Amino acid sequence: MESVEHFFEQWAGAICDTLRPITGKPWTSRVNKADELGAGDTESIFLTFSVSEPLSGMFRSALSRSAALQLNFLFTGSESSEWNTEQQETIDELSRQFAGQFAAALKPELGEVHLELQKDAPFTGSGDGYRLALSQADGIELFAVLELDDALRKKLQPDPAAVSADNHSVQSTNLDLLLDVELDVTLRFGQREMLLQDILELQSGSVVELDREIQDPVELLLDGRVIARGSVVVVDGNYGLRVAEVGAFAEA
């Protein structure tokens, strides 16, 4: 999941997909970051959802009373200006349908995610709020304020330092898998360019002069790149290298 805004855009899309077959008309949505988030209208209808792993947290949608009544009318065809228990149950059922559609939308990206409507659950917002606007072609508009708790916010927007540490851990683990791989290295005393004619004239006893003096360091190469320099030693009758410098060196 890329961000909080992407999460809420998916939620808005799930609502539109749920309302389309109910109303027989397409819906569009807009999600914008709220500059300020107040305590909420006392007339608001709060719908709080818990989200399972891999996200694990809670988010809340605050509907104005008029928007909730409008949704109730769209779902049941029963128009009323008074809020009652039956209408609350209708909104709860509609919200569960939103949640089911939302879980289906998240599945390709996150796998199985379960959402559950939490009745009267305590909720502490993280301070980040988004405003959701839903509209239909015939002019119907519905508005809501969306919030999430700190646990869900951290899942959607993890701390950069924590992400860096996790990436470093993964990189270290991946490197450990390669430590037993054998690589061929080459010890280079020097080099020179030769004419083809000179190469063809080589014979036993010929001397090829290189571009290094005897006191110059020799080079250790890996895949054609110099990775170390040092002096030549003899170990049990074999050439060896006493390393003096290690690093990536520019070719001379």
Notable characteristics:
35% helix; six-stranded antiparallel beta sheet; Surface presentation of antigens (SPOA); single chain; 2 domains; alpha+beta; 252 residues; Chemotaxis protein chec; rod-shaped; four-stranded antiparallel beta sheet; 6 helices
| Number of separate strands | 10
Number of helices: 6
The overall number of domains is 2
CATH C-level class of the largest domain? Alpha Beta
Structural category is alpha+beta
- Please identify, by name, the CATH architecture of the largest domain: 3-Layer(aba) Sandwich
Question: Fraction of residues in helices?
Answer: 25-40%
- Taken as a percent bin, the fraction of beta residues is 25-35%
- According to CATH, the homologous superfamily of the largest domain is CheC-like
The 3D shape can be described as rod-shaped
Biggest sheet: strands, sense, closure? 6 strands, antiparallel
Give the helices and strands as they follow along the chain.
HEEEHHEEEHHEHEEE
Radius of gyration: 34 Å
Strand order in space, largest sheet? 1-5-6-3-2-4
Mean pLDDT: 85
N→C terminal distance: 48 Å
Oligomer kind: single chain
Poorly predicted spans = 37-41
Question: Might you state the CATH topology name of the largest domain?
Answer: Chemotaxis protein chec
InterPro entries: CheC-like_sf, FliN, FliN-like_C, FliN/MopA/SpaO, FliN_T3SS_HrcQb, SpoA-like_sf
GO molecular function: cytoskeletal motor activity
Domain Flagellar motor switch protein FliN-like C-terminal: 177-246
Membrane topology: Peripheral membrane protein
